[in-house]
Amino acid sequence: MEKGNWNDCFISTLYEKYPQKPQLMQALMDLLHIEREAVYRRLRQDVSFSIQEIAKISVAWNISLDRITGIHSGLVPFFMQSVNYIEPSEQELKFLREIIHSINLFKDMPDTEFRDICNKLPRKLLAGFYHLNKLSLFRWMYKYGNVKNLVPFSQVIVSEEKTRLDAEYYSAIKNVPKSSFLFDENLFVYLVNDIRYFHSIKLITCQEKEHIKKDLFALLEYLKEVARNGCYPETNHKVDIYISQLSIDTNYSYVFTKLGNICFIHVFDKFEIYTYEPDMVANFRTWMQLKQRSSVQISGVDEKSQIEYFEKQNQIVSSL
Hints:
This protein is α+β, with helices and mostly antiparallel strands. It is 52% helix and 14% strand. It is built from 13 helices and 8 strands. 25% of the residues are buried.
């Protein structure tokens, strides 16, 4: 490799993260704690980024060694973020704040596209319903907490900071110009069965079950309004809802925007596995769009399809 080539690749990668120079300048100043002129010198290549600076940038902005050096190994780098949603560390809270910050940047970019394929309710919807959100945390604790010290639903404490971040996230997501959800046909069946199980082993009381049931009905009413209008009622931003006729094995999502693209695989209710690698995101986007072939759209279409779907889901929830 000729001298300087790796630095050219690295700087090009930085501009992919922040295409506008003023944004890139400010982001580097904030991350590296250096003056504006020092950033200018590095971007002009009068001074090289130090190894420590490269490491800090690559970790903070999830840049792989392949991207820095311009050498393509044929491997696709994926990153994994574990989040303890009950007692998040400062680093995990920072991760959640960065997600909200990133979403808020998208609201002025009309081509931004979010898509979720789900076999369980995504955080984008759960965050707006207190008991459903608490139920997701409770399920997380039951699956991955201390098996010797299982706590009932009533003892799940959601911190004020987590509650605040959930509210900010729920509000921010409505500002995305274009969103779509593709639900497993049995999504509400799976959820109701989980609630029944926890109620049967006395971890959820009858009264708590009724609170959760009330939230489920409220969510269905909200989704019905979204489907009827084809948009979020709060912002009028476009939303498409599809129902898959084939089973979905886990939750997937992607963000596609001019600022930067990313795809996620949500696994074990606990981990976010994701990549920024352009070819993989493009393939992921194509694959997720192809899932529509085995799906039925219920938003922005004839009312009969909407009525039939939501009547069926209301019957499922009523059976609790």
